[in-house]
Design goal:
The complex is a heterodimer of chains A (397) and B (266). Chain A is α/β, with parallel strands linked by helices and 397 residues long. Chain A contains 15 helices and 14 strands. In chain A, helix 2 crosses helix 4. In chain B, 50% of the residues lie in helices and 14% in strands. A nine-stranded parallel beta sheet of chain B has the order 5-4-3-2-1-9-8-7-6. Classes of the chains: A alpha/beta (397), B alpha/beta (266).
Chain lengths: 397, 266
């Protein structure tokens, strides 16, 4: 049994060539976590650059559709670059400099992690290459332009399914080739140890702030904390501070796509099985032979056939529950938040909002629900406009 | 001692490196891949490395990725690797299977090992499994008398070289450069040093892979390694050919050149 296990999940299933870099990273992040200089610098950047602490917003008009429960949003969408991703990226970019490396690489699906990485690289003077599936570069063209404006090189990946999982493969190939100069800024709580722990720790601030803010606002802990789960970084970030609060239900919302029965989804916990992908033993969507099955979601950020190993552990221990939310329900919640509260959420976060509508009805009007609004929806305006038929006549979706 | 281990010992006794040729099963299809593997053996490959196509081959460069995609699209199954292994055993050719770990996990480590042993395979090369994570495989390979080939890399520390080679049986796979599979104009300078350092901690044969594509490179690597592993350059013979007959011809020509290389090293 190696370090970095969550029960049976996690581990390091990568080529031997990467082991020294993983050990170097593990040592660097452990030292940094107790180094006042590092902690102070990250805290300063979050205060003066990210815009932390992010606020919480109570949304009563939206909550009327959630069985009358009180609904409070943790506004990670208001962070610089528009999502929670910057929390992790700034931490890893500072570690990159401490390790004496000059180049960062990243994978991205929807482009939010790529944009955050390109941003941190610009801020700290690092070379930056972002791998992105060719299909994703087409459906998220705006974010490709943002990354290039920030000085990053964006490389479209044309192998396999040409989506996020293939971008991860290509980033790992780059890393094994250039590991002396390069740090791989992995964007979520999966991959080989220490990534799942390290990325979670950089996102823990979400839950630390939110727990205090909810106590301050309502005078007690929430009954449920709800977050969307692609790889699962915003969810681990907001869940972690609540793990010991046994009365607080933790609910992760996976992409149900066209419905779990259709086979076109990213509901790893409903239809996947334990296996290895991208360096971690966790739940993976796979066929009888162990080949990875392609996922589907209206939201590019949840369109991933695997999930962070700590989520697999929270599922197996019963500490958290995971529900599929299909495209239709997510889009309904997306529209509802826009119209009732004047907030356009990311499609990923809309899955958590849909989860709140269901959980709120289950818990009733006395409940308090905290929802991670992990990102803003500017990047999704085109997709949503096409979905709701809002594009001018003759415009292609 | 497995057939692979015996072959490596015999080559060592002859004072030369063994030639190990990789091809993925199922490319261009099952029968075509078995024909190509047998053609390699007839032309002078000592050991066949039977690759199992995987959807996410993160240690492989573009040529093998392409072949894996075609093989999977054509319906290649994990069990085809056992079919190919058995077909090689039939003609007396030693073989070892190269597979990413999830394919073994999904089948069940014990069941995979039993199937491989029954097919006459000597063992497994596992590019994304390190010994630290391999408890179940160490036990299953012991039960079935299979070789277990883990990788060492130019980045491996002395401690890692010692612990990885201690877990190996059959041979040690030394990755010549930091990177993925694929032909290179020169085999990394790091390879010879890595082999030397590896020999300081193990008596097992040390075979070098990644980047070898020509007879000259095979001769050069054969000067210091116990085995020369060639993959992408052989796959390319099949990819570039206009038809199957030409693919087999290209394989025979390249293998003859490589076999001549390992025989003229020392």
């Amino acid at each position: 049994m190696t370090a970095g296990r969550f029960g049976p999940f996690g581990g390091r299933f990568v080529p031997e060539a990467l082991i020294p870099a993983l050990e170097q990273l593990d040592e660097a992040r452990r030292k940094a976590a107790v180094d006042p200089e590092f902690v102070g610098e990250l805290e300063r950047l979050h205060r003066t650059y990210t815009g932390r602490p992010s606020i919480v917003t109570e949304v009563p008009r939206f909550a009327a559709h959630c069985g009358g429960a009180r609904v409070i949003l943790k506004r990670e969408d208001l962070n610089h670059t528009g999502s929670h991703k910057i929390n992790n990226v700034l931490g890893q970019a500072l570690l990159t400099k401490r390790m004496g490396k000059t180049r960062v690489i990243a994978e991205t699906g929807a482009g939010q992690h790529g944009v955050a990485t390109a941003t941190a690289a610009a801020l700290l003077g690092l070379d930056c290459v972002v791998y992105m599936g060719k299909k994703d570069t087409e459906r998220q063209a705006l974010n490709v332009a943002r990354m290039r404006l920030l000085g990053a090189e964006v490389i479209p990946v044309t192998h396999g399914s040409q989506t996020l999982k293939d971008a991860v493969n290509e980033a790992l190939r780059d890393w094994v080739t250039n590991v002396d100069s390069t740090h791989y800024v992995l964007g979520t709580v999966t991959g080989p140890h220490p990534f799942p722990e390290m990325v979670r720790d950089f996102h823990r601030i979400i839950g630390i702030e939110a727990r205090a803010q909810v106590l301050d606002l309502v005078g007690r802990l929430p009954d449920a904390v709800i977050a969307c789960v692609g790889g699962g970084s915003n969810a681990m970030g907001i869940f972690h501070r609540f793990l010991d609060d046994r009365g607080v239900r933790l609910v992760g919302c996976e992409a149900g796509g066209l419905g779990v029965a259709s086979g076109h989804h990213a509901a790893r916990f409903s239809a996947g099985a334990p296996g290895v992908l991208h360096g971690a033993f966790t739940y993976v969507m796979q066929d009888d032979d162990g080949q990875t099955v392609e996922s589907h979601s209206v939201s590019a950020g949840l369109d991933y056939p695997s999930v962070g190993p700590e989520h697999a552990y929270l599922l197996e221990t019963g500490r958290a529950e995971y529900r599929p939310v299909d495209d239709d329900a997510a889009m309904e919640a997306f529209s509802l938040l826009c119209r009732t509260e004047g907030i356009i959420p990311a499609l990923e976060s809309a899955h958590a909002l849909a989860g709140a509508m269901t959980v709120g009805r289950e818990l009733g009007p006395d409940a308090v629900i905290l929802v991670s609004l992990s990102g803003r929806g500017d990047k999704d305006v085109h997709t949503a406009a096409a979905w709701f038929g809002l594009l001018p006549e003759g415009t292609r979706s | 001692m497995t057939a692979v281990a015996q072959t490596l010992a015999a080559c060592r006794a002859q004072g030369r490196a063994a030639l190990i040729g990789y091809l993925p099963v199922g490319y261009p299809d099952l029968a075509g891949s078995v024909d190509a593997m047998r053609a390699m053996v007839e032309a002078g490959v000592d050991i066949v490395e039977v690759g199992v196509p995987y959807s996410d081959p993160l240690m492989d460069g573009p040529v093998i990725q392409h072949a894996a995609e075609v093989a999977l699209a054509g319906g290649t199954k994990v069990t085809d690797a056992f079919t190919a292994t058995a077909a090689l055993a039939e003609v007396g050719a030693p073989s070892v299977v190269m597979t990413y770990w999830n394919l073994v996990l999904r089948r069940g480590v014990e069941r995979f090992a039993a199937d491989l042993a029954a097919a006459g395979g000597s063992g497994l090369i596992t590019p994304d499994l390190i010994p630290d994570e391999a408890g179940e495989w160490l036990a299953a390979s012991d039960r079935h008398g299979l070789d277990r080939v883990f990788l060492v890399a130019p980045s491996s520390t002395t401690e890692r070289l010692a612990s990885v080679t201690a877990a190996c049986r059959g041979f040690v796979y030394a990755a010549s450069t930091m990177g993925v599979t694929g032909a290179r104009t020169s085999v990394g300078q790091a390879a010879e040093g890595l082999v030397r350092h590896t020999r300081e901690v193990t008596d097992l044969p040390v075979c070098v892979g990644l980047g070898v594509s020509t007879g000259a490179q095979a001769r050069q690597v054969g000067e210091y390694a116990d085995g020369v592993i060639v993959g992408s350059a052989l796959v390319r013979c099949l990819v570039d050919a206009v038809d199957r007959a030409e693919g087999l011809d290209r394989i025979r020509v390249l293998v003859s050149e490589l076999a001549e290389g390992v025989r003229s090293s020392r």
